[in-house]
Amino acid sequence: MKRLFVAALAIGCAALAAPLAFGETPKQGGSAVVTFNNDLTTLDPQVGYDWQNWSVIKSIFDGLMDYKPGTTELEPDLAKEFTISDDGLTYTFKLRDGLKFHNGRPVTAADVKYSIERAVNPATQSPGAGYFSMIKGHDELSGGKAKEMSGIATPDDKTVVFTLTRPDATFLHLMAINFAYVVPKEEVDKAGSDWGKKPVGSGAFKFVEWVPGQRIVLERNPDNHRAGIPYLDKLTFEFGQDPTVAVLRLGKGEIDIVGDGIPPAQFAQIMADPANKELIAIGDQLHTGYVTMNVTAPPFDNLKVRQAVNMAINKDRIVRLINNRGVPATQALPPAMPGYNHQNKGYAFDPEGAKKLLKEAGAENISTELYAMNVDPNPRIAQAIQQDLAAVGIKAEIRSLAQAEVIAAGGSGKAPMVWSGGMAWIADFPDPANFYYGILGCAGAIEGGWNWTKYCNKKLDSRAEKADAMVKPDQSEGRIAAWQGIFDDVLKDAPWAPVFNEKRFTYHSARLGGDPTLFTDPIHIPVNYDYIYAKDGK
Amino acid sequence: MIGYIARRLVASFLILIGVTMVTFALTFMIPADPVAMLAGRNATAQTREQIRHQLGLDRPLPVQYVTYVARLAVGDFGKSYARKTDVADLIASRLPPTLLLMLGAILAELMIGIPAGIYAASRRGSGADKVAMTLSFVTVSTPQFVVGLTLLYVFAYLLSWFPLSGYGSLSNLILPALTLGMAGGGWYSRMMRSSMIEVLRQDYIRTARAKGMGERRVLLVHGLRNAALPIIAMIGLDIGIFMSGVVVVENVFGWPGIGQLMWQAIQSLDIPIIMGVTTVAALFIVLGNFLADLVAPLIDPRIRLR
Q1: Is domain B88-299 in CATH 1.10.3720.10, yes or no?
Q2: Cα(B108)–Cα(A373) distance, integer angstroms
Q3: pTM of this structure
């Protein structure tokens, strides 16, 4: 028996209007200007993989699945409905009627197949290729032995059938990440190497122009399948705008959103100004800042030493150091992530207990190194950690380096300790699995991998695989509970010392309206551009 | 003269070859892996190896270098790692703003340096001279980001005389050009002052004054013409100094030039862009020095053409 999940037909109106119910009715029209310091690198959904281009791509393209605005809750997007076979190995999606690309051509099942194969095809050099490894035919295509994936079939224009080689509960999330977004082949071919500069999608906004180093302009797509979305007629991204200057310009009414966030040096002052109270949206972020310890080499091959580090760090003080822009972390998962254990209080700050543990471990005079990225506030956080460690007798020398060098030192296993701040440490999709395999599991604990602790617990890995095989909707609670258990057990082995979970503060102009969750959307970072609106729109 | 030019050209070419070798070696000596940056944290080892292979990073360094130079010779700077687009196009689109900014900065430094130098020389030893020379010292030694942010805050934010950032009109150009040219202006004012003092000691100045020419005319006609020559010879060298300055100034003012492109490429370790911008910048520096070498003997015959 197959189970059928039919999405509400009126998804564009009913379901999506819900988070916007906060008094004022959104208006259609008007425009907004967002500033960024750096120009975007690309708008190619199969290639773009940094926090900045991530959400702009989300506004231009669509995938089979998406999230309810401002939440981490999955819902069908280009798909009207989908079914999952009992063994969890076959996913069948039915496309909505009347879907159109910005060039006017209808979106078909073949486009879905082409786009995912494009991500996997080595010629694309997509950083997301590995995400689709559970689809049958992945290895053949990525190894250059096939031109397409045998696991994606299109029996008709409106139907896409995926055959997987293993059940994977994250599959629906993967249909909602940028790498799976649907692109029109003819436009990709026509643009050649310029494709990333002139995107054509089916999303809320149409691409208008990109003046390198200066601006990207998008306009409302009137044919968007979500009726009435987006609200803004025009969306402009201005580049080369230092956030300090952007804050000044926002004060003068020249721009609407400081895309890079509030600069640390001005944070206290801006927050203290009562005029800004309505203009700063505060939200959770799928982020954990932590210290990794390389468990394969002394002194951190000793569990007691790792636990002592966890107890030695005064997280409250570090949170104050970053102007309370976060909350002390108790575990690897951030509070907004499914699977977060509210009962688990983690390691309490206990320098005496830490000293005792170090004594038991026979490791009272440890000298080590702490790698950190050299951009504020990370060196200051590293210094605070250094002082806390010194207080229990661990001498840590700080290696403050460029991001790429810290990543390289962590990946090679050369760094005994790494402070993770500034390494773009935000989940790609809101599922606990995304916080495990690459950064805590055996898969990432290889040379050049992102599991800098090199912690590889085969038992936990197999529990993770079992959890991800629970694909049925009625198993989802059990699956999240299983993940909770996995993360609780990771904490017992203490390869990380979780320090804080960042909160997001988005500073926007008074003329923009929309629920604060849209300005701190956990998926669209920094802002869900599709659902915010201009109060002075027509 | 032709032999001299030919020798300078050959030397310039050798310098450029050297520059490509050094930047290539330096870029690959950085203890960081562009593949890890590109592939992200959930990439499998297989994906990483594939990307490494696609970028050609698994080949021996000398092979990579030779490929790079061979492509360079036909104007192919390769493709950006993160953007996947042609580096030559990226640089071509960013070069005009940078050249405009440098032109503005040259005008700014001449407009600051020459009048200030003449003024100080004509009132040598006075309070005004001391103030001018102290100021020139301050402008030479203040870091550009401090100058830039201060000018922005005062003239763009507090006084609203100029836009806070952007590109496209003359009012956008003034503050960044001033920031970039300020240090050169201070430097030139000192050069102009000493050059002018030297000129004012000459016999022809005494003759001009003796025949009853007004002081202003003496300074601006006889003095300026002769005293400004060494400064003009220096402008070629400024191009080199500006090429490093644009990285800072373009980032402060949001100027869409190659300095900004370079800064972003460094952050993401986009080696083809770093290499490309370095090569183009080196080309301009070498060109500037070449021009300075050409102009110098014309201005001062004591510099022999060797």
Answers
A1: yes
A2: 38
A3: 0.86
